[in-house]
Amino acid sequence: MNTINTTNSLEKDNTVTSEQLQFTGxxxxxxxxxxxVSFDTQTAPKKDVKNTIKLSTSDVHVYYGESEAIKGIDLExxxxxxxxxxxxxxxxxxxxxxxxxxxxxxxxxxxxTGKVLLDNQDIYDPNLDVVLLRAQVGMVxxxxxxxxxxxxxxxxxxxxxxxxxRDKYDLEEIVENSLHKAGLWDxxxxxxxxxxxxxxxxxxxxxCIARTIAVSPxxxxxxxxxxxxxxxxxxxxxxxxxxxxxxxxxxIVTHSMQxxxxxxxxxxxxxxxxLIEVNSTEKVFTQPDHQLTEAYITGRFG
Length: 302
Ligand SMILES: Nc1ncnc2c1ncn2[C@@H]1O[C@H](COP(=O)(O)OP(=O)(O)OP(=O)(O)O)[C@@H](O)[C@H]1O
Ligand SMILES: [Mg+2]
What we know:
Number of strands: 10
Radius of gyration: 19 Å
Mean pLDDT: 87
Oligomer: single chain
Number of domains: 1
Low-confidence stretches: 1-35
Strand content: 15-25%
CATH class: Alpha Beta
Order of helices and strands: EEEHEEHEHHHHEHEHEEHH
CATH architecture: 3-Layer(aba) Sandwich
Bound molecules: adenosine-5'-triphosphate, magnesium ion
Structural class: alpha/beta
């Protein structure tokens, strides 16, 4: 039987940043796109989301030093839904997203209180294996961040680390399936040994999605995954999000309200560290409950 090398060679590669290892967030400012969004029921998801709770947070507060960035958020995220997080810059969307797979742990000044449950299990339990958690709850960042390795190795990295492949052939199958699911296989099947960094931005982002999928996550967190992409690449990633949502639970931060309307089942509006409202995306964009939400979606705030 063939054996595969499970050595974590990336750790020895000093060109790899901690961000690429998905142990920190990629924080850059981004701009609002668009103002008022017309809700198009033709493109809106029609998925029948069952209300099985996948992730839940209760009374979650996040502090950077003395400053409170998240002020007590209760939220339930359902299995196989796409939930969009929207709100003005600096209101805590990325911070809150990172509490869902403990990415905030890597920021020294950051402290999280409250409860976050994944399938009813406390993810802040000190005995929990955080590396495993981050495979179960994977993350895709704003800026595509492939490892400085081949396309194949980018996707094979996680399965090797977690010992998910029985042998070389099994690993090849995982890589191929993940690239298929990420809608990238046809574009890269003849160049698997070329560097991932040689792909276009949109292809790199789909490669990062393939890398996330390769470890069989249950939840995928996406922090403005299209903000560095052109409209064509954005459309491909959005299509992919809709396809992936039949199998995974997805939470996506976006500054594009059109994107939230196109891809999400529910939308959560954040404002200065508070969760102001969470409702079906159609309701948020047509009849929001709260005036702060309305001010934001009509372009009067943000
Ligand atoms: N690493 C950090 N150290 C200190 N403060 C931080 C850090 N990251 C975020 N903050 C602060 O926490 C608050 C929330 O920031 P966060 O990045 O979560 O907002 P956001 O809604 O994602 O904004 P944007 O839309 O610009 O990405 C802001 O006041 C920000 O300055
Ligand atoms: Mg952010």
